[in-house]
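Appendix B.2, paired examples.
Example (i):
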Amino acid sequence: MKNLSTMAIIVLLFLFSTATFGFSEKKYKQIEDNLLVGINTENRGLQVSCAFFLGELKSEKALIPLLKMLKSGATEEERIIAALSLCKIRSEQGMFAVKQRIKYDESERVQKLCSKFYSCYLANKNKSNMNVDPYEVADLNLEFNGIKLADFAK
């Protein structure tokens, strides 16, 4: 009886964790739509966060807003995260835009990071996924209003 109840608890925990952490197509679309709304707001912090997570989701719908952010982002951080997300999405149009930022961005920092992102893309072109570990993102020294991303990674 004890083994049966233990097995039942394990099965229930497994079902609960799958239901909680596994995203259905409907939930995925809802998350993607909410992030797209966030990237089009006036709040820069929200824009940058949404841009990052749209890259994590490899959202094709985010391509145009990310291209816009890469080209006309007011801060270096916006343009860097847009470039990173475009590299994760791996579209030809996005990669061309990142390549152009290497040459034409006014910030040397953005140019260097776009160059690194593009080099990673070329090195992993035949692989299906491009993974960036959280510690690598923290090493970008991103800062917004005096708050550094590295402070959150500790």
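Example (ii):
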Amino acid sequence: MDRHSEQREAVPGAAERWYARLLEADCPDADRAACARWRAADPAHEAAWRELDRLWQHSATAARHPAVAAAALRALHYTPPAPWYRRQAWLWPAAAVAVAAVAVLAILPHWRAAAPAPGTTYSTAIGQQRSVNLPDGTTVTLDTQSSLVVRYDAHERSVDLLRGRAQFSVRANPQRPFVVHVGNGTITDVGTVFQVRTDKDCTGITLIEGELDIAASAPDHATERVSLHSGKQLWFDRSGHISPVQPADLQAAEGWTEGKLFVHDWKLPDLLAEMNRYNRTQVSIGDPALDAIRISGVFDSHDPHTMLQLLQRGWPIRARDDGSHHVVLLNAARNQRAARPQKL
């Protein structure tokens, strides 16, 4: 076995150790932060964590049923004393969850064998966009710098969005739901068109057609759920909070799939951050006075040269090429020095 194979084999074991640590009541914030860094370090880490989390969620839900919990106790060769049932019945829900934890930890060494196939990974580089036709007729459009893993089985069509943004045009099949796992949330669909974008701190969902069920989990596994209807959008963060539903800008939502940025009253830094996602030429602001400029218009996401020309014509902005695909925007009213020729 080569070094890379050994590293892949070690990932599930590391996920098990992190998950068990975070289940402990006295787990310190430093360990939780370290776990978050481990998950973010590699898409394989995040995929292993999500698979383990699904196992825990299913087991914890089942354990809340007394008969299931009793069966789990018998399987673990443990029989609680009679007074535990009669005099402390109020402890049952917590005890049942504890049983689930014990049962999950008992089968952790075997969970890899029962896990679904690794799936098929689709990715895009800087400036690249890609459409993929899945076996069921669903079409996925990946935005720049995006990555996802597709896993299909007889019961569910599952996608893990690891980074970036994607649009899903889902072929309807009520008997086989289409589920997108992203961060600490899940999006369940049977046949719609929707977009998901995940950033460092939150995930945004825009529904173009149909209806979606969305669930977001908090670190303590409490889950918030909401239904989203056509023409609406929302976001959820890592704490499991789901925002109020808002009307979606469908023109802007669909524009990126055609290489267009529809911008309405954006701050200049926000426009540059979005353009920088698509291009190796990175544009930054060299004068804080420019931060307050607000922009409206339509831009080709792959053409920073034209964007810079438009900015210099419409606002007191001068673009200075610093070389190595880096352009700095200066306040033209303050800086009258001749600009170097741009090399975009």
